[in-house]
Structures are given as C-alpha cells and as structure tokens.
Amino acid sequence: MSAPASKGLIHSWAKPEKLTVPKEQRFAALPRRNSLLSKMFTIIRADVMTETSTTLDPDYAEENFSQRWLGEAPIFVFGAIMLAVCVTLLASRGVSLNLSGVLENARLFGMFTLILIAFDAAIQLNRKRPSSPTAFLKERYTAKPLLKTIISGLPLIAVAIIALPFFSKMKSAIPLFTEYTWDAAFIEWDRAIFFGHDAWEVLQPVIGYPIVTAFLALLYHLWFLLLYPGVMFFVFAKMDSQVRRQFFLSYTLSWALVGGLMATWLASVGPCFLDPLLGNAHFKPQMDYLYAANDQVPIMVLNVQELLLEWHSKAENGLGSGITAMPSMHCAIAFLYWIAVRRISKRWGAFFGVFFFVTWISSVHLAYHYAVDGLISLLAVAAIWWASQHIIAAWDFILARYATLRTNTVPAE
Q1: Cα(252)–Cα(266) distance, rounded to whole angstroms?
Q2: In the predicted model, is pLDDT for residue 75 greater than 70?
C-alpha cells in the first residue's frame, strides 16, 4: 500500500501518534482551502484530532477488539436493560414492535456514511491530484488500520441504530400510559421565573423578527446531525476511551430516562400543541406571530409541527414521531455534546456551548418548549453524566482488579 493514499486517513481515524506541531502554528502550517466545507474538515483534523491524540492509549485500534468491547460493556448492558424495559412496556400496551424504525435508522446512518465519504474523497482528490483517482481511493478506504477502527466501533453503532427507534416509539406511546396534565404547571413555572411573563414574550423584543426566526428554525433542524454524523464521530474518531464511553453511556441513558421515563412522568404537549390538543389558547399570540412570519420567510418548524399533529391523530409511532415537551431532548442532547466535546477540544467545546444555548432559546421561541423544559433537561443530563463517570470508573476498577488477580495466579513459565 502506498503511503500517500492512506497516511492522512490512518492518522485521523486509527492508531494515534503524538504530534509536535506547536499549537499556535497548527493553522499556519495548513494548506488553504477555497470552500468552507474543506476548512471545516481541516480544522477538525488539525485541532480536534491533534488535541485528543495526546491522551490516547498507544494500543488504540490494535487487533485486540475484545479489549475495547470489554471496556464498553456497561454501555451494552445498560442499553440492553433499557431496551428490554422499553419493549416490555410497549408490548403491554399492544404497540407494534416491528423493525421498520430500526431499518430506517440504519438507512440514515448509511446515507450519512456515504455523504461523509464523498466529502472526504472530494477533499483528498483535490489535495493530492493522483494520476489514478480510483486506485488512490481504493488504497485510502481499504487501509488495514482504518478497517480495524471501523470494526472496533460497530457494536456502538449497533446500539445507536437499534435503541433509538424503540425509545422514539416510547415517546409516541405516552398517551397510552398517562394523560398530558403538566402544561399548566410548566406555564406557571415559566411565569414565576420571568416575573409574570411567558418566556417567549421576554425573548420576542430581541429575536422576534421573521428572518431571525427562520434562521433559528434552520439551526433547530440541524440538531438532527448530532444523532448521525455526531454519533459516528464519537464512535470512530481518536479520543480518550473514558470520554467515548462516558458519552455513549450518557447518550443511551438520556434517551431512556430523560426522553422516556421523565417524558412520561411529566407528560406535557408544549406551547405549539396546547390549543389543538388541549383546547388551551394561551399561546395563540405566539403561534399567530410564527404563522405571520412564515408569510414573509418560510419557518421550517411549522410544517414539522403540523406533521407531528397528523401523526398523533393517526397514532403513528415511527422514528421521530410523538409529542412531548418536558424534558426537551433537543436541549438534552445538545447539552450532552457540549460537556463531552469540551473534554476533547476547547475550541469545539465553546462552539457546542453556544449551539446548546441557541437550541434552548430556539426551542422556546419556536413554541416547542417551555423554558423550564430545557432547564430540567440540563440538570438531568448533568446527573446522568456524573453517574456515567462513576459507572465507567467502577467497571474499570473491576477489570483492573481481575487483571491483577489473573496475573498473580498464573504461574510463570
């Protein structure tokens, strides 16, 4: 295998090497790009990957896959337990347990995989200008260290593909377990925090302009990328295994406990659905503004809200369906990315901190959530992150203790 075709990708995805380029010179030494997308890939490779490589185990991506998979066992165990509980509860209410959602989720992961490969191939071909593009790409994407890294991450990808659709079904099944009774309380909580005003009313003088609303709606939809390219980053990118495992355990528990258990316990529909589902017109002025803004600039979320109402009326339980406000999974997952990414890169941690804050504001401004939905999500994910850290640490202690006992009891040859 020739070095030019595989060197860059191997360094980005497989066995880490400590780089000696001074931090202040990283960007100065990088070749310039004409496109924003190319700059993004360059920054990720030069900054995120470089910073994480200094904390890695030098045996990362070796053939001993069992060592990584054993370290990730708490994720598989808790994921299986949560999935079993979810499936049992759904079956008890007669909800169909077909695999259509799993297949759709797998299709989305496959689609994003092809998109990322296409972007990477275009960038590399532009950089290298090989005489034989086909041979170059074949060598690049069949590099042995890359294949090892992909294989080692497949169990985590399987968890993400299988678990999420069933958690989504659980969200759709909330009316089968309880009634939506918490909205009045959350309205009062918001008004208590904002001195007698609804949260959207406080935000309206600042961001209540159609073009701003349309932009926030677009960003709110981009959150979707956290579930696919974002998850793939945490599966395959070089990073401290502690961060990877803590992220995935927190990710799995957040969907099960925040998006399932708490959403059922604190069942509420949110401002945009309060009138059509509960007959309460408290947020009619907010919805009037959003539809008036939509006459000037398309507001993407309105079509989605109407689609969710249609699915709800038909008792649909597919991937992405279901109506619930408290807690906000948009805020929960965005906050999880912030606390995880900031341990990998300060620069990208700051970016995700801003993204979380904008997501929280957008969730209120676009009438999906009360302000307290985001606040409760933040507190819940923080607790899950803390618990995940201790679970991973306890598991590592057990493994280390077992390894020590095994070493002490195996006779020397």
Answers
A1: 20
A2: yes
Tell me the mean pLDDT in the region 347-364: 97
pLDDT of residue 11 exceeding 80, the answer is no
Task: Please name which of 340, 344, 272 lies closest in space to residue 306, comparing C-alpha atoms.
Answer: 272
Angstrom distances, CA of residue 177 to CA of 85, 172, 244, 260, 389: 14, 10, 34, 11, 32
Query: How many Å apart are CA 340 and CA 381, to the nearest integer?
Result: 11
Residue recorded with tokens 């999880």 = 336
62-66 — which CB contacts under 8 Å span 24+ positions?
62/15, 62/148, 63/148, 65/148, 65/151, 65/152
The answer to whether 172 touches 96, Cβ cutoff 8 Å, is: no
41-65 confidence digits (pLDDT tens): 443 343 333 333 333 343 444 447 8
Rg (CA), the chain: 23
Rounded to whole angstroms, how far apart are CA atoms 137 and 149? 18
Length of the chain: 413
**Measured distance CA(115)–CA(128) in Å, rounded:** 20
Q: Using CA atoms in the order 10, 14, 15, 18, what is the torsion angle rounded to 10 degrees?
A: 70
Other Cβ atoms less than 10 A from the Cβ of 299: the count is 23
Tell me whether residue 22 is exposed, middle or buried, using C-beta atoms within 10 angstroms of its C-beta: 0 to 12, 13 to 18, 19 or more. exposed
Distance CA 344, CA 316 (A): 39
Averaged over 271-287, what is the pLDDT?
Answer: 96
| Least confident stretch, 66-70, 179-183, 227-231 | 66-70
Pick from 205, 238, 221, 220: nearest CA to 16: 238
* Cα separation, 41 vs 229, whole angstroms: 13
Could you tell me how far CA 144 lies from the centroid of its own chain?
28
The pLDDT tens digits for 227-244 are 999 999 999 998 999 999
